[in-house]
Structures are given as structure tokens and as C-alpha cells.
């Protein structure tokens, strides 16, 4: 099976999230069914359930990695980065669909998932003009005592995202970094800083 770290999000308690566009895709896993891929994921992660989103095919190098839009905060708790209300492109529709699916989903243990919204930036107000730029606050990295997230130059959205992440991660400092060079490659902070399990 072929996939990248950002293609799978886990809650550490048996539940995974992923997009079909990234993993159930002939460019990564030709001749493999969703059921086969799901079985491989569950074996690799020690999980028993995958929440699937349709995703976005062929629009970016990742085919819509889930970690740019939806993340687990804890077992039974997640967030989705939402687009501005005026956005109706394929990514905006995908984010809204992810929110709907996750809001109706249950964990591997059968509990309903509480879903928080993290408002994304307005692409017309960010610094970058690169059409492949990924402006994802949700693509953060959680480390000892802190959450490292991006900031993109939409001052209002940057400030609101920091406040939301501060509320969702009590006891941690939220640091925002200018990642314009990284984002121009279609990636973000979580993409290049995959977490390690506790020994």
C-alpha cells in the first residue's frame, strides 16, 4: 500500500480519518479496493474504523490529504477547517462535506464525535499569490507545551485561528509561523513534522 503521513489522521483510540481521493486512487494504490486499503490502514495503525471523505482528485500533489482540513483533538473530538462562506470551489465543498460527515460519525467505540470549526483564511487576503498555496491552520503540529500553526497574512483570520487553537488546546502555547515558502509547495507544518508515539 502507498500513502503519505498526512493522508491519515488518527485519534489514538482506534479511529482513523482519510480521503478516498488520496488513498483509493490508481496513482497510489492501483487494483486495490477501499476495503483492502481500509484493512491495511487498520492493521498498520492498530485501528478498527476509518471515517472516509470523498476528497478532491487531481487538483494538488496530495490529492487532498486529510490533515489540511480535518484533525482529531482527542477521541470523540475533532475539528474541521471551514472556508469563507463565499467560497464555493472544490476545496470549500470538500471541507463542508467533511464537516457534515464527521458530525454524523461515531468513533470506533461507538461515541458520537463532537466537531469544532476552525475558520480558514480568505485567499484574497493572504500574502501568497501562488495558485498551489496551502493556507491551512489545521495543518498544525502538536509538541510538548505548544501547538505550531501557520499564519498567512490575513490578519483577522490569523488572529481568530490562534484564539480558536488556544481554546481547543488549553495549557499549550500557540505559535504561528510564516510558512509562505512551505505553503507554496502545497504543504504545511504537519506535512513536514510527523508525530512520534509515546514510548
From TrEMBL:
Origin: domain of life: Bacteria
Protein name according to UniProt: Agmatine deiminase family protein
InterPro entries, per database record: Peptidyl-Arg-deiminase_porph (IPR007466)
Transmembrane segments: none
Record-linked PANTHER family: AGMATINE DEIMINASE-RELATED (PTHR31377:SF0)
Pfam families reported for this sequence: PAD_porph
The keyword Mitochondrion is annotated on this UniProt entry: no
Swiss-Prot/TrEMBL keywords: Hydrolase
